[in-house]
């Protein structure tokens, strides 16, 4: 059969059925759930952008040579950015209680080419006495 004139069907990436989450811990950085991982296309590397005035974070998939590229490691699609400096930036932006973890819902934004988290809208995840240890 002659297949000229046929066009390939290219399925659109399905929207995740779960809610996209970022959890921020005062000492551990940020963790992202598997729905966020899937929304980003199951990347090997991500980079994170933040906006001080808007108090928003965008996480995007990227190549290893991209500025701020961070290798994705984790279990079952969940992954972490385990940088205390990231926690420090987020807690400074938001004036959050440093003895509390927070959870933010995200949404995939086509224009931003990533998942956007509004830090102004966060739920208290846990409250405990976190202690910084001198290195």
Give your account of this protein's structure:
It is a single chain. By secondary structure, the chain is mainly beta. The protein has one domain (20-127). The chain is built from two helices and eight strands; from the N terminus they run ββαββββαββ. An eight-stranded antiparallel β-sheet has the order 5-3-4-8-7-1-2-6. The longest helix has 11 residues, at 84-94. 28% of the residues are buried.
What structural keywords apply?
135 residues; 13% helix; 39% strand
Short structural description:
The chain has 135 residues and is mainly beta. 13% of the residues lie in helices and 39% in strands.
Write the layout of secondary structure elements.
Blueprint: E1 20-25, E2 29-32, H1 34-39, E3 45-51, E4 56-62, E5 70-71, E6 79-81, H2 84-94, E7 100-109, E8 114-127
Antiparallel strand pairs: 1-2, 1-7, 2-6, 3-4, 3-5, 4-8, 7-8
Shape call: elongated
Number of domain modules: 1
The class by helix and strand makeup works out as mainly beta
| Range of helix content | 10-25%
| Integer average pLDDT | 85
Using only C-alpha atoms, the radius of gyration works out to: 18 Å
Strand order of the largest sheet: 5-3-4-8-7-1-2-6
Q: How many strand elements?
A: 8
Termini, distance in Å? 70 Å
Number of helices: 2
Largest sheet: 8 strands, antiparallel
What is the succession of H and E elements? EEHEEEEHEE
Low-confidence stretches: none
Q: Which percent range describes the beta-strand content? A: 35-45%
């Amino acid at each position: 059969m002659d297949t000229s004139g046929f066009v390939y069907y290219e399925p659109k990436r399905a929207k995740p059925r779960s809610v996209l989450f970022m959890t921020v811990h005062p000492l551990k950085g940020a963790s992202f759930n598997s729905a966020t991982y899937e929304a980003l296309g199951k990347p090997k590397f991500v980079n994170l952008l933040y906006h001080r005035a808007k108090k928003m974070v965008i996480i995007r998939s990227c190549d290893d040579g991209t500025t701020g590229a961070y290798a994705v490691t984790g279990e079952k699609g969940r992954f972490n950015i385990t940088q205390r400096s990231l926690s420090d930036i987020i807690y400074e932006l938001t004036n959050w209680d440093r003895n509390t973890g927070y959870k933010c819902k995200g949404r995939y934004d086509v224009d931003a080419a990533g998942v956007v988290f509004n830090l102004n809208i966060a739920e208290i995840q846990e409250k405990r006495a976190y202690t910084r240890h001198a290195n």
